[in-house]
Amino acid sequence: MVNSYPQALTIAGSDSDGSAGMQADLHTFFARHVYGASVMTACVAGNSYGIHASVPMPTDFIDQEFKDLADDYHIRAAKTGMLADSELINTVVKNYQAADFGPLVVDPVIMTKHGNQLLEESAFNTLRTNLIPLATVLTPNFFEVEKIAEMTISSDADMEKAAHKLQDMGAKNIIAKGSHADPHQTVVKDFVLLASGESFWLSEPYHETDRVNGTGDSLSACITAELAKGTPMKHAIEIAKQFVNAAIGSPIEVGHKFGPVNHWAAMDRDFS
Ligand SMILES: Nc1ncnc2c1ncn2[C@@H]1O[C@H](COP(=O)(O)OP(=O)(O)O)[C@@H](O)[C@H]1O
Ligand SMILES: Cc1ncc(COP(=O)(O)OP(=O)(O)O)c(N)n1
C-alpha cells in the first residue's frame, strides 16, 4: 500500500542552525503529518547567537524550483518567509501566480526577534503592493504590524485598527501577533481578523524562555499545513496558536543562547 499525505510548500530562506526559516517550516509540516516541499529564496549562516551572513538565491534558480514542483507535485497550500529584497518578492509573486499551489500564507519576515534585518527597507512597498494582496493569511509580528500599517501600536484598539488596515491592503485573513516583550506578562495574545469580518483575540500562557527562535515560522507553517489538509481557516489558526505554545512550553537544549522551539513536544497532539 502507498500512503498519501497532503503536500505543502515553504518559499523561504534556509537558516543554518535549523531553528527558523525553511527548517522550522519543514519540522512543523512533518509534525502535522504534511509532506513538505521547499523553494529556497536565500541562505543565512547563523547559530543561537544570531545571523552572521546572508546570500539571496539567483532568480532563475528560483524560477526553476517553482517549475519543477509545478510539473510534478500537487501542492495544496504554500507559505512565504524570508524574501530579502524587491527582486525576490517579485520573482515569487510571478511564480506563485503562474502555479496552482492553493492558499498562500504570507509571513512578512522583516526582522528576527534578535534584530537581524531579513528584508531590505527599500522592499517594504513591494511587499505592501505586490505580495500582501495575494495573502490568504497574513501573519505579521508586533513589529511588522507597526511597520506595514505605518502605525504605532499602544493599545488593543490600535492593533485592531492596524489589522483592518492590513486587510484593506488586500490580505484576506490576518493574525496580528501581539507583543511578548514584557517578562511579567502572563498571557500572549494575538488579534485575528477573518475574511468574513469576524474578529477575536487568541490567548495562550506566556512562557519565560530564551528558546523561542522560529516561533513565527512555526505558527505560519502550522496554518499552512492545516490549510493543506482542508481544515477551515478559523480552526487552522486556533490549532497553530496552540501548536506553537506547546512547542515553546517544553524547551530543548540546542545551542548556547537563543535556542529553537521544540516541535516534538507539539507533535501528534490533538488540538481542538
Ligand atoms: N515566550 C512566549 N510564550 C508564549 N507564546 C509566545 C512566546 N513568544 C512568542 N509566542 C507566540 O508565538 C507566536 C509567534 O509570535 P512571534 O514570536 O511574535 O513571531 P515572530 O517569530 O514572527 O517574531 C505568537 O502566537 C506568539 O504569541
Ligand atoms: C531564514 C530565516 N527566515 C526567517 C527567520 C525568522 O524567523 P521567525 O520565526 O519569523 O522569527 P524568529 O522567531 O526566529 O525571530 C530566520 N531567523 N531565518
UniProtKB/TrEMBL annotation:
Keywords: ATP-binding, Kinase, Nucleotide-binding, Thiamine biosynthesis, Transferase. The keyword ATP-binding applies. It holds the Pfam family Phos_pyr_kin. Transmembrane segments: none annotated. One of its GO terms (cellular component) is cytosol. InterPro entries: HMP/HMP-P_kinase_dom (IPR004399), PM/HMP-P_kinase-1 (IPR013749), Ribokinase-like (IPR029056). It catalyses: 4-amino-5-hydroxymethyl-2-methylpyrimidine + ATP = 4-amino-2-methyl-5-(phosphooxymethyl)pyrimidine + ADP + H(+); 4-amino-2-methyl-5-(phosphooxymethyl)pyrimidine + ATP = 4-amino-2-methyl-5-(diphosphooxymethyl)pyrimidine + ADP. Its EC number is 2.7.1.49, 2.7.4.7. The keyword Lipid metabolism does not apply. It comes from the Bacteria. Pathway: Cofactor biosynthesis; thiamine diphosphate biosynthesis; 4-amino-2-methyl-5-diphosphomethylpyrimidine from 5-amino-1-(5-phospho-D-ribosyl)imidazole: step 2/3; Cofactor biosynthesis; thiamine diphosphate biosynthesis; 4-amino-2-methyl-5-diphosphomethylpyrimidine from 5-amino-1-(5-phospho-D-ribosyl)imidazole: step 3/3. It is an enzyme of class 2 (transferase). Residues 15-262 form the Pyridoxamine kinase/Phosphomethylpyrimidine kinase domain. Belongs to the ThiD family. This is Hydroxymethylpyrimidine/phosphomethylpyrimidine kinase.
